[in-house]
Each structure stands twice: as C-alpha cells, then as structure tokens.
Amino acid sequence: MDVPWTSIFIRFVLLLFVLEFTSTFKQTGTCYFPERWEGSWFQSGVRQSILIEGPRLSSKGRCVGSEGDKFLLLDDKKACYRCVVIHEKHLNVLQYKETYCHSRELLPSLCGLITGDALLYSMFRENAVPIPCPFKGPFTFTYNRGHGECRYPVSSIDTCIEDSKLLLSYQACPDVHGSESAIEELQCLALWKEGSSRYLVGKIYHSHVTSNEDRYRCFVYEKASPSSETADPVEYRVAQSGDATCNGLFSAIEGSRTMTLKRAPPLNRCRFPYWIAGSNRWHSLDYSSTYSFHHKNSTLRITNSTGIDMKIVCVQMKQSSRDESAVVLVTHFTMGCQNGYVCMAFYRRDANVMEMQMGTQTNRREDACNSNFFDKNSIPFVTLVMPSIDAQRCPFAGKFDITNLVQNKRETAAGKAEEIGSGSFYLRKPGRSAPFRRVKRLDEDLDCDGFGEFVVGCSNYYTMEFTTDCSAPDLVTSYSCHGQWEENGTSFLITSPEDHATYGSRKFCFIYKRVVAGVMFSTSAENCNRLVHPGVTGELVFNISSKGKCFDTDASARAHPINAWLIAFILFSSLLSAAAATR
Ligand SMILES: *[C@@H]1O[C@H](CO)[C@@H](O)[C@H](O)[C@H]1NC(C)=O
Ligand SMILES: *[C@@H]1O[C@H](CO)[C@@H](O)[C@H](O)[C@H]1NC(C)=O
Ligand SMILES: *[C@@H]1O[C@H](CO)[C@@H](O)[C@H](O)[C@H]1NC(C)=O
Ligand SMILES: *[C@@H]1O[C@H](CO)[C@@H](O)[C@H](O)[C@H]1NC(C)=O
Question: What 3-state class would DSSP assign to 198?
Fold first, then answer.
C-alpha cells in the first residue's frame, strides 16, 4: 500500500531467512506487550473493547514469543497460533496486520504468511487523553461528500476553550446533493506522519452520533503551500474517513469527505476601558468568580468554581461616557465549544469597584446590544472588586442605636430559600433567646441585651462595628469599608469582614438609605442587588438611629458600667468622708 509496508515485507523475508536457520522465536515462553499499550482499545467491527494487559491481547490470546513489532500469540481455546505485527502510530493508535490461526507445524514461517496487501486494522485507545489539534481556528471551509463542493454558504470551524477541540459548523448548499447543515465537535486524539501524509484521529460529538463506530474518524491533512497570488489562500486540505478506520485514506484530496480550509477574517477588536485593564484581575464579591484581562486589553477570561471558563473578546464599542467610566460593548464569547455574541456593560463605581451587566447570547453580532438581548433596566449587576482593594474612610462616623435587626433567609439563585446559619454568616455565636423581638437565630445562649450599638469610624476611620454589652469579646463583628457610590438616594458600600480567618477575602454589599430618623440598612452577599429595599428586604436588615458622636462623653457614660462604679465609688467615698466628719 505504501512505503513502510514494503520495507516491512523486506524485513519479513529477512526474518524468514533467520527463522529457517536459528528459530529465534521462543514460542514456549511468555512475552509481554509494552506497558504503555495497556488498557482498553476500540476497533471498528469488534463489539467489545480489546484489552491489552501483560501478555494478553484479549480475544486473540497470550503472547508466547516476540521480536520487534511481531508478536506470536497462542489462542488458548482453539490451541492455535497466529502472528500479529503491531505498529504504534501514536500512544493512542495501534495498527496491526495478522495471520489466520494456524497449528504448531507452521510456526517457523508463520509471520511470513502476512502479505503486503493483508488488511490493516486500526485500534484507538478508549478514554485517551486528548491532544492539541494540529490546526487552530477560526477557519471558513468548503466541503465535498462526493456530490460536488458545498461552497455557498461557507461553513466554519471555531476554536473551543480547550485546544484539543474544534467546532465544525457545516452549512447546507441548496445546489449540492447530500450537503446538510450540522454542528460537530471534533476532539483530537492522535497525530502521526507517514511518508508525506499527516494523519489525525479524532472523536466526533454530534447529537445524532452515539456509538464509537460513528464517533472515531481518521483524517489525512496537508498544509497548503503558501501562495502570494490569492488574497485569501487555502491553508489546509483535509480528507476524512467514512468509518472508524484509516482505510482508504491516501491523500488529503480523496476521502469520504474532503474539506478545504481558509483562515477566517479576523474579528474586529476593540479594547476594554483603560481603568478595567489597570488591574488585570477582578473578583466577584464572594470570590467565586475571577475576571482577568489579557492580550493588550482586548480579551477577558471569566473563571468560576464550576470550572467552566468563558473567553470574551471585545469586538465593538457601542456607547461610552466621555471618561469611559460607563461603556457598552459588543463582545464575542467562547464557552466550551459554544460561541456567539453578547452585549456587556461596564461601570466604574469607585477606584477599586466596578459593576458589569451581561446580556443574552446570540449568533448575530448585530443583535447583541438590541433591547431584546440586552435590557439595561432589568439585567442584574455583577459587582466586582480588585484583589488589592484598600480600606477607605467609612461614609459617616458616630455611634448608633440599632432599633431593629432581622436576619432573613437568603434567596439562592434557583429561587429556593436557604437557611443561613448564624454561626457562619454575619454574626458568630448561635444562642438561646432572641435579644430582639424580631431577630431570628441570633445569640440565643447569651444572657444580655444583644447588639447595643453600631459604631462607625470611631476606633479608626475605616471600620464599622456591631458591639454588644455582653462580655464575650468575639461578638464584636467589624467590617472594613471599601468603595462606595450613590444612585438616586440609595447608597452602596462595599465592606469586608475584618475576620479574614473565617471569611477570607470575601466582600459584602451594604445598601443603605438615610432618612430623618437615622439610616436604614440591608446587606447583599452576591452582588449589590438593586431589588433590595434598605431596611425592608435583604439578608441582614437593620435600622439605626444616631446616639452621638464617637467621643460623646454623655453617651459613653450611659453605656459603660465603669462609670457606674465611678459614681458608686464617689458616693461611697463621700459617705466615708461624711462618716469621718461626724466622728
Ligand atoms: C492596557 O491597559 C493598561 C492599563 O491601563 C495600559 O497601561 C496598557 O497600555 C494597555 N495596553 C494596550 C495595548 O492598550
Ligand atoms: C459559572 O460560569 C458558568 C459560565 O460562565 C455559568 O454558566 C455558571 O452559572 C457559573 N456558576 C456560578 C456558580 O457562578
Ligand atoms: C432615579 O429616579 C428618577 C426619578 O424618580 C428615575 O426617573 C430614574 O430612573 C431613577 N434612576 C435610577 C438609576 O434608578
Ligand atoms: C426600618 O424602618 C422602616 C421605616 O420606618 C420600616 O419600614 C422597616 O420595617 C424597619 N426595618 C426593620 C428591620 O425594623
């Protein structure tokens, strides 16, 4: 069939010669297959997986002698021998030729019975570790399934987040029989070169493809020689096998399906605003997602705890305020192998705080920022902070009475109410009886009045504290203030619990509104939720009223028991002196 087999044939002849005289095959012993071949393999037409383990090649028998790539196998059941010549094309692909099963007499000349035109079988490793694909998209391509070239509309190949996958979008051409629109995901598993041909083995994922017979495909490809004459030159020619073998694939222009790949016109690129890319990493308030900017500020990568990454390329600036502090952009996203366009808005809220809105994904770039896909007024905000965010002065200072405090169940994303353990959320000690009439699950085992005060900017400018009259010192829960901004009379303040050992870097959004009687507060853990009404809904909801300035002595005289002692001491000493005077 091709060059290597002729050389193998010559080696067989030589081997036969050697066998005749020395009988080097030790057919009585046990031999082992290379350890790296161990595992289960798929072969077209063989229903069960083929297992290679130690000396065994499952269905064919036990290895009793080997020399180079030739293995003599004893079929235990039928008590017969066969010669199998195995070539490792790639760690994930073995190809072999074999003889029929023969009785012992033929042993010395067994391997010589394999002729040059014997069938070549391919085995593909099951559960193979994928490899990077040899061509990187995006491409446009035309294809031919034997009824003519499907050129219009042109088909396309997109890259996926993983470099071992490509997404092939076939278009149907009205004038070409057998062309149909389909989206196939190709996972690359093996590459090798044979003569001047390059081979690729991959697995195809498609909604209609369910069996390994339909999934494994072999490809021959060649990089076209660059030609300076045409404006958009052909980059690759690719031929695909019609079944789960590499049979009948001789060149990149003959196959069950052939494709001609051209590089796709590059996406327009814009860049994200300078202040976003200033810190190349941003985090969601709970630190579960990371937003990082790359490639000359034109690419954004979103990573979260689910491990599903999203790559976003800035395509077009739609709107921008003069200083770029609020921008609306058309972007192109890739998530797994999905891709398309999505409209995004970024708002600078404070030096280290921004908010983002992301619309609905669409295939058409023109649609992305339409109100059907991007409704600014209804899309929730994602609040993001820089990792290096510094503490800032809190928005006001003083001592406040907490007039009421409610801890609500948190609404999860799925809309399911979730019980918040007071031990793990804002306030640490679970306890006995509620200190406030409406407080749930707070400090029930403490015999005191609960939270006495809310103290802002007093011990230093940057902290807000809940203090109690109780002696337990760890009940003081303090927060650092970070960025803040105001919208229509409602203020948003980013805070972080000072107890980093428990909370790590996570932040909270305090949403508040000043009223005549004081300030109404609500907190929101995931983002600065616009649906929260301060003092009414939210996770931790509390109202405060002013009690005085930080160093107001009257207020502290009432609060501190030490003053009572002082008064008692003065009274007592004056009693003593009175007694002394009467003596
Ligand atoms: C990316 O943003 C940083 C920070 O503003 C800036 O220094 C850099 O020049 C930008 N790079 C490009 C290519 O615009
Ligand atoms: C993680 O990101 C993926 C894709 O960006 C998204 O579908 C998913 O909802 C995110 N999960 C969380 C917990 O944020
Ligand atoms: C602010 O209030 C005005 C008047 O009530 C309203 O028209 C506008 O939409 C509000 N803006 C925001 C961002 O809520
Ligand atoms: C805070 O005050 C507002 C207005 O008086 C009231 O509607 C709300 O219920 C109060 N919040 C709490 C937690 O008591």
Answer: strand
